Amino acid sequence: MGYEVDIHDLKFQLFDWLPAEDLLGAEKFADWDMENVEMVIDEAVRIAREELGPTNEDGDRIGSHWEDGRVTVPESFKSAYQTVREGGWVGCVSSPEYGGLGLPDLVGAAVNELFAGANLSFSLSSLLTRGTAHLIENFGTDELKATYCERLISGEWTGTMCLTEPQAGSDVGASTSKAEPQDDGSYLISGEKIFITYGEHDMTDNIVHAVLARTPDAPAGTRGLSLFAVPKFRVAADGALGEPNDVYCAGVEHKLGIHGSPTCSIIFGREGACQGFLLGEEGQGMRQMFQMMNSARLEVGLQAAAVAGAAQQAALAYAKERLQMRHWTGGPGQVPIVEHPDVRRMLLSSSAYVQAMRALLLRTAYYIDMAHVAEGEERERYQALVELLTPVCKAWCSDWGFRVTEWCLQVFGGYGYTRDYPAEQYLRDNKIASIYEGTNGIQALDFVARKLPARGGQAVREVLGAAAATAKELAGDDQLGGSARLLGEAVAQIGAILEQVPKRDDGRLIVVLNAVPMLDSFGTLLGAHFLLEQASMASGRLAELLAEKGVDPADARELLESNEDAAFLHNKVQSAMHFCYRALPSVTAQSVAILAGEKTAMEAVF
Ligand SMILES: Cc1cc2nc3c(=O)[nH]c(=O)nc-3n(C[C@H](O)[C@H](O)[C@H](O)COP(=O)(O)OP(=O)(O)OC[C@H]3O[C@@H](n4cnc5c(N)ncnc54)[C@H](O)[C@@H]3O)c2cc1C
């Protein structure tokens, strides 16, 4: 069973729902127009289906292996890497100054969904490489930029992000890795980092690590951390690869999923000879690293949505083929399981959540682009929206992306539990998204403590106001009215939480205790809002299509079953309604507990 994606939905969201064409009118994207962007997406779909998808099982079954400090990845990853590298995909959104394609983040997000859905383990190396290159581009000296940026963005070398240490996971400020300044302006790096994705591998000749370390006399906590570029092999002035830089891989983790992605323990300076180069200023490392982490958080959300989307497509294909039991209305013989109401419920819930995740992620990517091309207050406004939505993209999509893979496995029945089908790999692979790049618990704390109150709550007011306006606009719609009213209620409930909880004596505890439910409610509200906007658009188009064909809407079943566009538009409306009725009430459920100040978890004795 190969990789499949709902390309119809991806293109609808990219090109119809979001104003991609207007974005391409900005000077920054002058090299791109709608036609060549569509060609980029079509080519990315081809690569995902034909070149990356077939390597996904190798990643899982063969995995990555450590021996004597060296790590090997499956052979098929190496040829896939050449394809991705030669196509310029590693730097598809990177700056053309260093050889990147300079595509909008919106298009990059769609490409990332395709590649991560086809092979999550494999796609991680490009994510990290792009991030390392951007850090050097933004904070490196001219010499560092000249040495590393082009070689990373072209994919000749790969990059990593090195924060985690055995005692410093969520608590990055507890890091103890050291950086001693040297007379030549470089630093001697020492310490052990763990869980480093693609920290060592055999796909490229060199690896550039972005490492957080502490200079002598630096203050405790994150304020004392500085950021360094640390190559695996030193690079001579003429760009030639020099001697090894005392970076040793001590092993790889044996994990639940993403077996193809090596998760490495890296010892820097085992022999006291690891040279690192400061990026920016001392003590600014955490702030700088956040630049990489913020885009990585959006990408982790994308990964989860992508794998969930792949699982949904696989489950749908299986449900159309697998015959079991009679039709629920009776009749002779077995029918495909897609006819059974419970299977249909699981399939539509999965599809609706995937569409909602995609909408949230693409809309946020669009805001990132607007924050680059807009000016003055508008730029500030988009930046505030990006900051508010980043933890929601990461945590909401990874929590629900994982649940979708579980529903999809269920559709396969017993076969889903076996290795005969990819459902179990999707489930195992997708679990990581709620853990790395800052666990979802930490994302939620960031959301409630920093992002909601930021700028006097301006961004959250804008988001809630827009959802309320959509609810009001559609409240009288024959088909979407009931869903829109549920959206309106959810807006009111979140508004009540934001207004009432801070006034309580135990408000601070209620906020931290409910950080995850609050983020979850907010993500659900955004998903419903965006799906309703899309449904309203789809419903208008469907009406036009039926009128064109001279088909009465009350008698359209035959056309829906034979016309792909009509079926897509119809399902778009059904998915939005399904999501509003099935997911939005969870906001009410959470608000009951939050507004009542329920805190038994703190009273329980553990
Ligand atoms: C496959 C994989 C790849 C990774 N890749 C990288 C990489 O490339 N680079 C890198 O630097 N790191 C990487 N990591 C590390 C990853 O980011 C950390 O595992 C993660 O940040 C959590 O840290 P921890 O494992 O120490 O968990 P802990 O920090 O010990 O957390 C354990 C639990 O406690 C919760 N918790 C902790 N503190 C709080 C709090 N204040 N309030 C509420 N809950 C809290 C957490 O949410 C979590 O549920 C990777 C990890 C894995 C498994």
What does this structure look like?
With 606 residues, this protein is of the alpha+beta class. The chain has a domain at 452-601. It contains 21 helices and twelve strands. It has helices at 7-17, 20-24, 34-52, 56-61, 75-86, 105-118, 120-139, 142-153, 285-321, 341-373, 376-411, 423-431, 440-451, 458-474, 481-500, 507-513, 515-549, 557-562, 564-582, 585-595, 600-603; strands at 65-67, 70-72, 158-162, 178-181, 187-197, 207-214, 225-231, 233-235, 241-244, 247-252, 263-268, 275-279. The strands form three sheets. Strands 3, 4, 5, 6, 7, 10, 11 and 12 form an eight-stranded mixed beta sheet that branches. The longest helix has 37 residues, at 285-321. It is globular, with a radius of gyration of 25 Å. Bound molecules: flavin-adenine dinucleotide (FAD).
What distinguishing features does this structure have?
single chain, about 10% strand, binds flavin-adenine dinucleotide
Short summary:
This protein has 606 residues and is α+β, with helices and mostly antiparallel strands. It has helices at residues 7-17, 20-24, 34-52, 56-61, 75-86, 105-118, 120-139, 142-153, 285-321, 341-373, 376-411, 423-431, 440-451, 458-474, 481-500, 507-513, 515-549, 557-562, 564-582, 585-595, 600-603; strands spanning 65-67, 70-72, 158-162, 178-181, 187-197, 207-214, 225-231, 233-235, 241-244, 247-252, 263-268, 275-279.
